[in-house]
Amino acid sequence: MFTEVPQAKSVMTLLTVQKLTKTFGGLTAVKDISFELEKNDILSVIGPNGAGKTTLFNMLTGIYQPTEGQIVLQKDGKPCTLQGLKSHQINQKGLARTFQNIRLFNKMTVLENVMVGRHVRTNNGLWAILIPNQKARIEEEETIEQAMEKLEFVGLADKVFIQADSLSYGDQRRLEIARALATDPTILLLDEPAAGMNPQEKKQLIGLIRRIQETGVTIILIEHDMGLVMNISDHIVVMNFGQKICEGTPEVVRENPEVIKAYLGA
Ligand SMILES: Nc1ncnc2c1ncn2[C@@H]1O[C@H](COP(=O)(O)OP(=O)(O)OP(=O)(O)O)[C@@H](O)[C@H]1O
Ligand SMILES: [Mg+2]
Question: pLDDT digit string (tens) for 91-115?
Answer without folding.
Answer: 999 999 999 999 999 999 999 999 9
